[in-house]
Amino acid sequence: MLGHRREEVVLAASLSSLAGFVDAVGFIAVGGYFVSFMSGNTTQAAVAIADGAWHDLLVAGSLIVAFVVGVVGGSLAASVRGIRRRPVVLALVTALLVIAAGAHAASAPVVLCALVVAAAMGAENATFERDGEVSIGLTYMTGTLVKLGQSLARVVRGDRDRAWLRYAVLWSGLAGGAVLGALVYRGLGFASVWVAAGGAALATLVTYARDL
């Protein structure tokens, strides 16, 4: 996070907002499951095993698998030589969101559409890769909050550390996007994913035009 330019931090916060947006939509639509926050689904799966709730385990487990498949796809797209990584990865994210929204419009089950959205969120994490490793996590914030707290601790000790601002912006992006997603869902339902697809398409164009 600290080794990235300010423009990249803004992009990261925007993409975290996108993740928060679709996570709220998926959480409401699927009934308490996540399309971008896999730690939550892991806990859901664990509780389902303990309770013998096999349907819940199937839903949570399928979302986790779809997310990992998306990560694989995004990483493969990011590793192709001779292309600009970020626009290609974000184009993949856009395409998956369009497929999910289109499938819902064609009356596909919401759970199946949510799996495609989860794959899109997995792919999104390849936007900021360095040497095959994610340098900024876009769909999960626990590590970001830990780093924010560590930076604030240095401030308390008297250091002139402003790194916490970047971590706060990233977390705020996810939280703000989730609020917006929940509000939009009230009017559009799962069709809110079209809005997310539009946001991803805009991010694709911006990264291409600004050579990010």
TrEMBL record:
UniProt KW keywords: Membrane, Transmembrane, Transmembrane helix
Transmembrane segment boundaries: 12-37, 57-77, 89-122, 134-152, 164-185, 191-209
Source taxon at top rank: Bacteria
This protein's record includes keyword Transmembrane: yes
Pfam families named among the record's database cross-references: DUF1275
Protein name: DUF1275 domain-containing protein
Species assigned in the record: Rhodococcus rhodnii LMG 5362
